[in-house]
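Write out the 3D structure for:
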Amino acid sequence: MSQIVVHDSKNAAKAEACWSWQWPDAQRCTAAVLIEERVRGECDRIRLGHPASSFHSELRGDEEATTDTLVTRALSAFDKGKLVLIVNDRQIVGRDAVIHIDDRLDVTFVQLMPLKGG
């Protein structure tokens, strides 16, 4: 069983660990699967009463959205370069990039936001 530790960052600010989950019996996955698991896992946590992360809040915006919609938005942000995925200090490029899962993965979701004021 592997532990996936999620860190969040905006515009390359210092990443902060926000939660983790156990991933049983997987040896590898794609970037798309890892992003989807994070979004679905956080939606499950919110339903259990945990607060939403800023990552989740940015995906949702001012509206209620289904989990599938949030997954689609996260994958679209990744495709457009608005979301950068860093796994164990290595940037992952492309949805189909294979990620090897060790005993522990530190996964940082970096949201790139436009600077205000031009």
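Residues 26 and 101 are 7 Å apart (CA to CA).
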